[in-house]
Write a structure and sequence with these properties.
Organism: Pararoseomonas baculiformis
Distance between the termini: 31 Å
InterPro entries: HSP_DnaJ_Cys-rich_dom_sf
Bound molecules: zinc ion
Protein name: Molecular chaperone DnaJ
Structural class: mainly beta
Shape: elongated
Length: 65
């Protein structure tokens, strides 16, 4: 016993994940996410967060390539 690479378990190569929330059909590779720099507050030490420009949200790439 010891051959996990050639066993014979078919794995679907289609990674179609559907969050089902605020997903834009135009942005299939990106998704809005809470800014990790400011935690979604949009501010860092009384200044606009440079990571999200004060929006508290950032667009992250969710491509599993
Ligand atoms: Zn931020």
């Amino acid at each position: 016993m010891g051959d996990p690479t050639s066993t014979g378990i078919p794995v679907p190569a289609s990674g179609s994940g559907r969050p089902g929330d605020e997903t834009d059909p135009a942005a299939s590779q990106t998704a809005p996410n809470t800014c990790p720099a400011c935690g979604g507050s949009g501010r860092l030490e009384n200044k606009p967060c440079p990571e999200c420009e004060g929006t508290g949200m950032v667009t992250v790439t969710v491509g599993d390539a």
